[in-house]
Amino acid sequence: MSDKFSTIEQQASYGVGRQMGEQLAANPFEGIDIPAVQAGLADAFSGSESQVSMEDLQTAFTEISRRLQEEQEKKAAEASAEGEAFLAENAKRDEVTVTDSGLQYEVLVQGEGDKPTLESTVRTHYHGTFINGEVFDSSVSRGQPAEFPVNGVIAGWTEALQLMPVGTKLKLFVPQHLAYGERGAGASIPPYSTLVFEVELLDIL
Q1: Which residue in 43, 154, 182, 199 is a FRET match for 147, CA 20 to 30 A apart?
Q2: Coiled-coil annotation: which residues (predicted)?
Q3: Is 105 considered catalytic here?
Q4: Does 180 participate in catalysis according to the annotation?
């Protein structure tokens, strides 16, 4: 650790700057200029006159916002197309069943218990990945089964669970329109993502 910031005031000030930097890093734009950020912060704190006119600031903010929106739309279109191509190829496999909604599933273990209904609450283990294999959520990794109402999850899960006798384990290939669609899910699941789950139905509660 550096001893550059040795006083309580310096350390707290540095912490404020780090927090602001983390916020910027979480929502960056291409070409962001940190010295200019520092100058704006210093001028605002000291009450100095802005070095950039309000008109130019508004123009700059509008343009950056447009660029970010354009980039998001580009990524969404790419994700949607990539997902559609993956599902089209996956559907050719003999072990994959495709439902009328577009949900795809593969039976890994066939259970013999009761099937849940739309009104049921279930206990499951699951492992969720993107189509590139990257894990975004896993009750298996946490070592803790998840409990939830059948009608309280994404549409692809709601449909699949009602096809599963207790003890069944399916591999689900969920199109974006049966997952989180154009909104995505927070920072973990981008918009228009096709998702893959291994889901084991442990019990109906």
Answers
A1: 182
A2: none
A3: no
A4: yes
